[in-house]
Amino acid sequence: MRRLAAAAQSSARRREIALVVIAAVMGVLAGLAAAFMSTLTQWAHEALYGLSPGERLSGSPALLSPWLMLVPAAGGAAMGLIALALKKWRDRPFVDPIEANALHGGRMSLVDSIIVAAQTMVSNGFGASLGLEAGYSQIGSGIASRLGQAFDLRRNDLRILVGAGAAAGLGAAFDAPLMGAFYGFEIIIGTYSIPAAAPVLAATITAVMTARLLGAHVERLQLPLDVTLAPIDIVPVLGLGLVAAAVAIGVMRLVTAVEAGFAKSGIPAPLRPMVAGLMVGALALYSPQVLSDGHGALHKQVEGAMTLTVAVIFGFKILASALSIGSGFRGGLFFASLFLGALMGKLYGGALAIAWPTLGLDPAVLAVVGMGALAVGIIGGPMTMTFLALEMTGDLALTGYVLAGAVVTSLAVRETFGFSFSTWRFHLRGEAIRSPHDIGWMRELTVGRMMRTDFATFPAGGSIGALRAAVPLGAHRLVALVDDKGAYGGLVQVAQAHGPALAADAPASSIARQTDALLLPAMNVREAAFAFDAAHAEDLAVVADRAGRRLVGLLGEAYVLKRYARELERARRGLGAED
After folding, report:
1. What residues have CB less than 8 Å from 500, skipping those under 6 apart?
2. Closest CA to 207 of 168, 254, 233
3. Which pLDDT does position 468 carry in this prediction?
C-alpha cells in the first residue's frame, strides 16, 4: 500500500495528466459540495420564511409576517455562538484561497474550509444580505488543497489546483463553467497560463456536470427579444463603467466604516451579528429583495420596469450588505454586487432617458452591463464577469458591451483605489497582498536561511597588531568583533587591518564598520535588500536580537540579490511561462 501511495505521489509530481485527473476528481467533490450547500440553504429559506418550494427568498413580493424580520437576528445570534465556540476551540484566522495562494503556496486547512462553508450557510440561510460564493470558493479550494497535499504536489501545482477548486465551486453554483474557470485564473491563480488551463477546465466542467446531475440549475436572464445595440451605445456604456467604479469604492469603504463603527460601539463582538440582523430584518419589511444574495430579485429587476422603488432597494441593499459583512456574518459580495450592479444600471438608464431621450437604449441592457461592471469593481476579474454575462444571457453582442464597461471599471478602480474587496480587507489587516500572485516564497526566504555561520571573530577590545597576528592576509576577508559575552561590535576588513598606515597598538574597533547596521534572522529577503541599501554596505552582521546583539551569522548583499533573482525566476516559471 505504501509503495502504491509513493508511486501515485511520484506520478502526480512528474506527469501533467496526473494533475488533470486529480483536478477532475476534485471537481466532482466540489460540485457535490456546492449542490449540497445550495439545496440546504434553499430549504432553510423555505422553512424559515414560509416560501413555496423553489421560490427564491429575494424574489418574494413581501414577508408573510412582520415577525419574520426577526429571522436574520436569530441567524446573527447563531453566528455569535459559533464565534464564541471557535474562539475557545479554534482561535486562529482562517486562510481563504487568495491568501493561501499568495502567502502559503496553496496550503490551507480542509477543516477550516468546512467551518467557513457552514458559516456562510448559516448567514445566507437566515437571510443575511450576503451570498454563498465565499463558501463555494472556500470548500472547493479546501478540498483541492487537501488532495494536493496528499499527493505531495509541488508548490506551483498546488496553487493551480487550489485555483481549480475555487473555480469548480463557483462554476457549479452558477451553472457557468467559463465564468468559473476565469474566476480561478483571474481571482485565485492570478494569471492565465497553458499549464493551468487543463486542470482548471477539467475541474470546472466536472463540477458543473455533477451539479447538473443533482438537479442544480440557474435560470437565464430573459431579455426583451427586440434588444438592439448601436455603435453609439458604447458611449453611455463607458460612462456606466465610471459610475460603477465610484459605487464599488463607496461600497467597500462603507463596509469598512460599518465594521469600525461596530468596533467602537462597545457592543460585544458575538452580539454584533444579531444587532445587524435586526437592522437587516427591518429593511426587509420594505422589500425582501434586500435579503440573501439576490438571485430571485436579480431576475425580477432586469426584466421589470423602472420605478422609484428601484432607487430605494438599491440603497437598502447596499446598507444591508454592509451591515451583514461588517458585523460578523460570513459570506461574500459576489452575487450581491451583481444584483446591485443591475439596480445601478437601471437607475443610470432612467437618468440617461431623461438627459438623452433620443438614444433609446433599453434599461435591461444597462442593467446587465451594470451588473458586470460593479461586480468587477468589487470582486475583480473583467473576463470572469464578462463570461458570466454571456452564460446568463446567451447574448454575444451584449457581452461585448459588458466587457467594455468592465474594463473601464477595472481600470478606474485600480488607478484610484488599488484594491478589490478581498485585497482591501487584507490591506486593513496589514498584509501587503494586492493579488493572488505568489509572494509567500519571499517571506519564507529569510535571513536565517541565507546567512553563513563560518565566519571569523576577534575580541572587540583587542589591538590591530593582535588581529594581524591572529588573522593573516588571505585567511578571511572580514572579521567580526565580539565582546566577552558574544555581543557584536562591528566588522573589520582584514586587508585594511594589515595596512601599513595603521598603528599596531591602535584598537581594532577604531576601524570597525557597520556597528549599528544589523540584520535579524526573521527578516525576509526583501527586508534584507532594503537594509543593505539603507546601510550602503556589502556585508552585514546577523544578530539574534537587537537588545543582546549576540552574533549568529554574516550575510553578503551579492548573495541576497542572487538568491532573490533565482527565486523570482522560479516564481515566474511557475506562472506557466515555462515548465
Report:
1. none
2. 168
3. 87
CB 367 within 8 A of CB 350: no
The x, y and z cell numbers of residue 167, run together, are 473555480
* Residues present in the chain in total: 579
Cα 244–Cα 246–Cα 249 angle in degrees, nearest 5: 105
- Beta strands 488-493 and 478-482 are antiparallel
State the pTM of this model.
Answer: 0.78
- In the numeric block, the cell 537594509 is attached to 531
Measured CA to CA in angstroms, residue 170 lies from 10, 91, 173, 183, 200 at distances of: 30, 28, 5, 8, 12
324-352 pLDDT, tens digit per residue, is: 999 989 988 888 899 999 999 989 988 88
| Higher pLDDT pick, 194 / 46 | 46
Contact 339, 298 (CB under 8 A): yes
Burial class (CB in 10 A: 0-12, 13-18, 19+), 544: middle
More confident residue, 101 or 425: 101
pLDDT recorded at residue 577: 41
Q: What is the dihedral of CA 469, 470, 476, 478, to 10 degrees?
A: -100
Model pLDDT, residue 320 = 94
Question: What residues form DSSP beta bridges with 541?
Answer: 518, 554
Grid coordinates belonging to 470: 591572529
Query: For the chain, what is the mean pLDDT?
Result: 85
